[in-house]
Amino acid sequence: MSATQAGRPQQHWWYVVIAASALLMITMGARQSLGLFVSPLNTSTGLGIVTISFAMAVGQFVWGAIQPIAGAFADRHGPGRVLAAGVIVMAVGSALTPFMTSGFGLTVVLGVLVAAGAGAGSFSVLIGAAAQRVPAAARGTASGVINAGGSFGQFVFAPIVQKLISLSGVFAMAWVGLITLLALPLAWLLRRSPEATAAHHAASAADGGLRKAVAEAIRDRSYLLLHAGFFTCGFHIAFLVTHLPGEVGLCGLPTSVASWSLAIIGLANIAGSLMAGHWVNRYRSKMVLFWMYGARAVLVLLYLAAPKTEWTFYLFAIGLGFTWLATVPPTAGVVGKLFGTRYLATLFGLTLLSHQIGGFFGAWLGGIAVAQQGDYLWMWYADALLAAAAALCNLPIREAKIVRTAAA
Asked: Which of 154, 222, 260, 275 has the greatest CB tally within 10 Å of its CB?
C-alpha cells in the first residue's frame, strides 16, 4: 500500500489511533457495564435471572456475529458510515431497554440492538481502519492504544453507571444511550476518502476479493487454532462481566465492590493493553497469548482458594485486568501476519465471532448455574480448564520469529 494509506498520510496516523481509542472507550465502556443492570432489570421486570442472562448471552453472540459483517462493509465502503450507524443503533437500543417488560422484548433491544450497535463500533472496524493507515512498525503499538481506550471506558463507565442506577434504577440505561451519542463525531474523523474507497475496490478486483480471502483463511490450521483460543477468551470475559455482580452478592459484599472491581479490571487492562502492544513488536504474538491464557487459569484457581473479601475481589480484578482484553493486539497481530491488512477488519471480525460464541455460553451457562446450583462454582472450574486449553491451542500456530534490527 502506498504512503497515503487509505487516503491519509502516514505521518498523521496518530490522530486515527486517538479517535479510534476514544470511540472504543465509549462503546466498550457502556457495553462492559451491562452486568450491573442484571439485578435492576430483575427487580423492575420480574423476569428472572435465567431470562435476563439469556438476553445478555444473545447480546454476546450478536456483538460477535456483527463484527465480520461490519468489517466487510468497512473494508468495502470505509469505516465512517459503519461506525456512525453502530453508535446510533446502540443509543436507540439502550434508550428502549427500560420499557421492555417481556423476555422477547428485552432480548430484541438489549441482545440485538445494543449488541449490534456496539459490535459495529468495536474492534474489527477500528483496528482494521487503523492498520490500513498506520506504518507496519507501529501497528502493534496502535492496536494496544486502541485497546487501552476500551479498557479506560470500562474504568470510567462502571462507577458512573452504578451511580446512575442508584439514582434512577433501570432507567439509567436511557442515560447510557445518550452518552453513547458522544461517539458520533469520532466516527466522522475515521471516514475514508472517496479516492481511497475507489482504490480499495480496484485492489479487491486484483487480489480475488473478500470471498477468496475468507475461503483461504478458514482452511488455515493456524487461523482455526487462533479461533479456538479466542472462544475461551469470550467465555471467560462474558461470564465475569455478566455474573461478577452476582458472585459479589453471594459472598455477602456490597454492590459497590462489583462496580469497583469492573472499574479496576478496566484500569489494569490499560496497562495490559499497552504492554501487549509493546510485546507483539518484540515477541511472537502466539507466545504472548500462551502466557496470558495460562495466567488466567492460575488466577481463577487462586481466587477459588482465597477468602472472599473485598480485597480478594480487588486483587483478582487487578490480575485479570492485566490480560482482560489485552489478548486483542496479539490476536489481531497474528491475523495480520498470516493474511495482511487488506481484509483485516473482516478476518479479525470472524475471530471475534468465535470469541462471542464463547461469550454466549459464558453468560447463559452462568445464569443456569446459579439458578440450579445456587452458586457459580462449576463455572469457575470450567473457566480455569478452558483457559489452560486456550494457552495450549496457541503453541502450534504458524508464526515467524521476530527479527530485531538496529532500527527497531
From this structure: 154
